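Collaborator request, handled under Task 6.
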Amino acid sequence: MIERPWVPSKKALRLARPSDAPRLAEIYRPFVLGSPATFETVPPSAAEFRRRMAGAIVWLAAEDGGRVVGYAYAGAHRERAAYRWAVDVSVYVEAGRQGRGIGKALYAALLERVRRLGYFNAYGGITLPNPASVKLHESFGFHPVGVYRSVGFKLGAWHDVGWWELAFPGRPAVPSEPGATTPDLRRRQAN
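Structure tokens returned to the collaborator:
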């Protein structure tokens, strides 16, 4: 059976809402329990997802037929102040729906929003091997910058994590403060 490609409507990609947290946790759960794609070993609760969403720079959801089928988010790359123009990005798509363009649409929207908010570098960590994730990142211009060898032990094996970087064009000599989409981060940046 050939799966139909996902064609997003105007409303299919949107900012994630706190009410999406149970569904996001459901999408993420199989990655935690059965994959080295994430190094978490205990699936986070909906409440934990709400907490993470509130602290993200941007968190997007993709819908198909009114049901959330994937999400992507950008968070601070590191905590120290001089890193504040860099983000870590990630995308997760519901099992059985990968390879249909959902992740690509989410990343396109996420990266554009991050760029418009005033960030200049995006980083993606990929547990290796993962040719689909490498292909997705490189399709947006990410390039490899290094590998942490045997950095995580999960599911009975040691795993490498490769890091990919995307530098947005137009970096000024002195940057303005970056923005935020999520309310908690906007409040923190205002203080």
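The cover message to the collaborator said: "The chain has a mean pLDDT of 91. The CA atoms of residues 73 and 91 lie 7 Å apart. Please let us know whether this matches your experimental observations."
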